[in-house]
Design a protein that fits this description.
140 residues; 5 helices
């Protein structure tokens, strides 16, 4: 009976050692998976931020001002599925420009002013080639 007891104790010791090794391997795999997940999350966040800045550049001279000056959080500019929502980016950029006009994309502002002027002048303010003229602007 002593021999059987010793054998049972040895089997239990092997089972515990085997279970301990298996638990260590599972913990190691878990840590690796977590590191991989964190790295992928950082990459996705970088892609999302770049897309937000690309969209914001249409309205802001320095696209990063949306985050740096406006204090906007990336999460607030995402759709439910995690993609960048262009409407939210546009609205946030518009709000920032309304609050701080000096941050506006000056090239876009010039283009908008030029288009508004041309629209206001209509056919009167054009010369034969279609370009606006001062004479056409002031004549009735």
């Amino acid at each position: 009976m002593t021999e059987q007891t010793e054998q049972a104790t040895a089997d239990e010791g092997q089972t515990e050692a085997s279970g301990s090794r298996e638990a260590q391997q599972l913990r190691r795999r878990l840590r690796e998976a977590e590191r991989e997940r964190d790295a992928l999350l950082e990459r996705v966040t970088a892609f999302q931020s770049a897309e937000v800045e690309r969209l914001a550049a249409e309205k802001l001279e320095v696209a990063g001002d949306l985050f740096a000056v406006g204090g906007i959080e990336l999460a607030g500019l995402l759709a439910e599925d995690g993609s960048v929502d262009p409407d939210k980016v546009s609205a946030a950029a518009d709000a920032l420009v309304a609050e701080r006009p000096g941050l506006a994309n000056q090239a876009a502002a010039r283009d908008a002013s030029r288009e508004a002027l041309q629209g206001a002048m209509g056919a009167r303010g054009t010369v034969a080639g279609g370009a606006p003229s001062w004479q056409g602007l002031f004549s009735s």
